[in-house]
Design brief:
By secondary structure, the protein is an alpha+beta fold. Among the domains are: about 40 residues, no CATH class; about 160 residues. The chain is about 35% helix and about 25% strand. It is built from 16 helices and 19 strands. The strands form six sheets. A five-stranded mixed sheet has the order 2-1-8-7-12. A hairpin with a 2-residue loop joins strand 7 and strand 8. The longest helix is centred in the last third of the chain and has 25 residues. It is globular. The relative contact order is 0.10.
Length: about 475
Amino acid sequence: MSAIKITATVYDYSKFDEIEIVEGINYKDVVRDFISSYNYTYEGKIHHLCRTFNGKNYIGGSVGVVRNRIYRYAEKEYDITLQIKSRFDKDSKPYFLETMLLDTFEDEYIKENDLRINDDNFFDFLLVYLFKNAVTEASRKGVYRKYCRFEGNNSRLKGSIDIARHIRLNMGMQNGRIAYSYRENTIDNPLNRLIYAAHKRLKERFSNNSVMTALLDSSEITSYLNILHSSMDLYSTNVKTILPQNLQPIAHPYYTEYEKLRQVCLKVFHDEYLTLFDPDQDSEADTILLYIPTLWENYLKNQFARYDLGVVKSQEKHKYLCELSDPHEVLDPSKNGRLTSKPDFVFKKDKKPFMILDAKFKPSWGECMKSPPNYKDFDDNDFNKCLRDMVIFETDRTGVIFPAHKDIETIFKQCCIIGKKYFYMHAVIVPESSDDTTYEEWHSTFIENLKKVCDKIRESIKNEA
């Protein structure tokens, strides 16, 4: 008996009863059980699909596609596909997620309309994004090298003589050749062949899409592939040969980033991988999940860095908008050790820390903007983190910056903590998209909303003593 197929859609930080069943309408309990038990690792941290707030179950901050071809529940088997979208993309135009993923390609992407993210290409789009990022991160460690065994049969002896093979190949030939084998720490290894083959497969799959091509032809990927071209024989890149050579994880701690890249490359060949090496078809090969609060934080970092909107001059960037690159340590005498604090953004005034801001994504912060500010209504973990950073950095201002729907009353609120110390809340309004809205129109409005928040931050730094 084949597994019962279920297809469902949920949104980040949504309630369990908001699950949308596309196929298998009578199996919502199965989907709930699946979500409750699922967790994954993203950037070294374990994330759970299910989060509990005030005794109620919610979807966490994950976005992407989860596929489990054989999920067992109540003595039955189910084939579950779960698509998790951003709560700001509740229509057929996921402009917000596209912007978070492609902010480094904004100028080209705004002009492109040949292929938007949709339900059919959602997995592939995330796959290209992950591949590009994985190559970028891994290449910073240098080109991957591994000790491999090679064989030769010529007059240029290298390594040790392979007597059995020499007798088989050269006995009685009088050809001057010697069969030998040797080990070498080389670029010509199975992982680099897999990387090359994965890039080639993605290029073929998206040859008619200029956006995907732009991602796959980034300078980091091109530089890495150029090294492979000059150091390897890339004609023998048969997928059925390469995949079994890359099934073992890379254990060396120096090459952690390359282990992530290996996993992404296997996802590129998820159809072949499942067919050849996963007969039970319960692999993670066709699952991709991202943590959207991290995407939001990285997006803000890039936007602050390129904040050239005619108000803040380039030489003033480091004075007004400065991200702390290293953890700030303070001695804790009570614990005879050091506490490490690393807020998302430290804004400076006169070369001294003036204000701390943390990037947040929970919808509860948007709800706080609809009523008079009261720190008792704030998320305890987020609020306490901001207070701790404010004390460590000896600033009088701290706060959060988060995306919100347009139904909030204002984009800025402040709450007096004690004396002259204030907690700021900055909301970046995410516009709604409609069938008549183009990406260029939506993006222009979103950037204007972000600019208003940046102007408010700059105003606070300039005017307050």
